[in-house]
Each structure stands twice: as structure tokens, then as C-alpha cells.
Design goal:
258 residues; 3% strand; hpI Integrase, Chain A; 12 helices; 2 strands
């Protein structure tokens, strides 16, 4: 965001010369096409100037006080039919590395960046425990989490032909940087609408909830450090509870009188 959005507009200025109006103008410019991204860019810029304050480069933060664009929490989960179609599309797609990365995200609930930058030395010998270094996680804490046999299977297959330190390597041995094109084609093939890569993380959590896993367990799998972050999935308990209530009441109606 800094290189793509901030520097093209403010890169010619000295740090101390950047004004509130400059930051607000940047926010308005980005808001025209990507209002949520505009908010995120300002957050990055505010963090930059907080560091500049600490280092004594400036005496005020010009990115403070900019009115954010309204945001609505997005809650998109793939249903079982969509997941089935997605898996079929993944198995038949020619881009194996990016498809394996997408499967990895779906089966672990991890963030895109964590998957694409995953290294072999982050896994134990049996490829069953993933220890994410603090520098790679959003919370900047080490996150140790077991993975399923399906994930271990993906890893073992890739390890047999790997020549890189990275699990999802590009042709030059570095990690692949994105899977947008593959994802877009998968959505067309699988006939899935309005879905992002990050929705796979929500899907992982929603399935865990529907299977009766506790919120602390789900939080541990996703690497949440605050319970309120995981609590956003609490309402998903309603569906299995409704089904259970229906099953009980149906059983009562079908029970013959004594």
C-alpha cells in the first residue's frame, strides 16, 4: 500500500512537509474506487508518521483526524455445495502451485500471506505441526497449530518435487506473490459469486462452529489472541441448535402415546 498508493502521491515531499490536507486529499482520491482500501492506506500512513514522531523527524502526525469511510462487516461463507464445486475446480485446474495454496488456505483457515510465505522449516518432521514465526502473523506472535491429514498430504506431495525453501514456490524459487488470476478462474468454473480468498478463512471457522467446536478451540486454530475476534462466529451456532431443536420436537410428535 505504501509503494502503490502513498509514494505516487506524496513521494516527492519531505516527511516534515506533508500536511493534513495532503493526507486527506490522498484519502479522497482512493475513496473514488476503493473506499475500504482508502481507510487502510491512511492507517498505514498514520503508523508511518507515528514512527517519524518517535524518531524526531516531525512534531505532529498529519494523518490523524481523517474521517474514515463507513465499513460494513463482511460475512461471506461458502456453503457445502460451493465448497464441493470449488474442490472439483481446484483438482482440475492447470495451475497446481496456486491451487495447492488455495486448498491449503481452505483446509487451515490461515491468512493468504501466511500461506504464500510458508516455509518448510516452519513444519515439524511429520508435517503435522505448523509453527508460524511472529514476524509472519498479524498479531506478531508465534502461532503453533496442528494441521489436518489433508494438509499434510498436500505438503508431502509438494515436498517430493520441491527445490525451494518455500512451500508454494515460483519458477525462480521465491514464494508465489498472489493467486488472484487462479482464484478468478476458479470462481467462474465453480459458479461461485461474490467470494474472496479471505472468505475461505471465514468458511473454515463456520464449518468448525457448525460441527460444535468451541470458540476457544476455533480461536486457537485461527491464531486469534482476543476472544471478541472469534466471537463474531458465535451466531453460527444457531443453525445446528435449530436443527437439534427440530429433531427433538419431531421425535416427540412421532412418539406414540402410552
Amino acid at each position: 500500500m505504501f509503494h502503490k498508493s502513498v509514494l505516487p502521491k506524496l513521494g516527492s515531499k519531505k516527511v516534515a512537509d506533508v500536511t493534513f490536507s495532503d493526507c486527506e486529499r490522498l484519502h479522497r482520491h482512493l475513496t473514488k474506487d476503493r473506499p475500504i482500501r482508502a481507510n487502510r492506506v491512511i492507517e498505514v500512513l498514520r503508523r508511518n508518521f507515528n514512527l517519524a514522531l518517535r524518531w524526531g523527524w516531525v512534531d505532529r502526525n498529519p494523518a490523524v483526524g481523517i474521517e474514515r469511510n463507513p465499513e460494513t462487516k463482511r460475512e461471506r461463507y461458502l456453503d457445502t455445495d460451493e465448497i464441493s464445486r470449488l474442490l472439483d475446480a481446484l483438482d482440475n485446474h492447470k495451475q497446481r502451485t496456486s491451487c495447492d495454496a488455495i486448498k491449503f488456505i481452505l483446509f487451515t483457515g490461515c491468512r493468504r500471506g501466511e500461506a504464500l510465505n510458508a516455509r518448510w522449516d516452519q513444519f515439524d518432521q511429520d508435517l503435522q505441526i505448523w509453527t508460524k514465526p511472529a514476524a509472519t502473523t498479524k498479531q506478531r506472535r508465534i502461532h503453533r497449530v496442528p494441521v489436518s491429514s489433508a494438509v499434510s498430504g498436500i505438503l508431502k506431495e509438494r515436498l517430493s518435487s520441491s527445490n525451494s525453501d518455500y512451500i508454494f514456490e515460483s519458477k525462480n524459487g521465491n514464494p508465489i506473490t498472489d493467486v488472484k488470476k487462479t482464484w478468478a478462474s476458479l470462481l467462474v468454473t465453480a459458479k461461485i459469486e461474490n467470494a474472496r480468498i479471505h472468505d475461505l478463512r471465514h468458511t473454515f471457522a463456520s464449518i468448525a462452529v457448525s460441527q460444535g467446536q468451541s470458540l476457544p478451540i476455533i480461536g486457537a486454530m485461527l491464531g486469534h489472541t482476543q476472544t471478541q475476534t472469534t466471537a463474531r462466529y458465535a451466531h453460527l451456532y444457531d443453525d445446528p441448535l435449530i436443527k437439534a431443536a427440530e429433531a427433538v420436537s419431531s421425535s416427540m410428535r412421532l412418539t406414540p402415546p402410552p
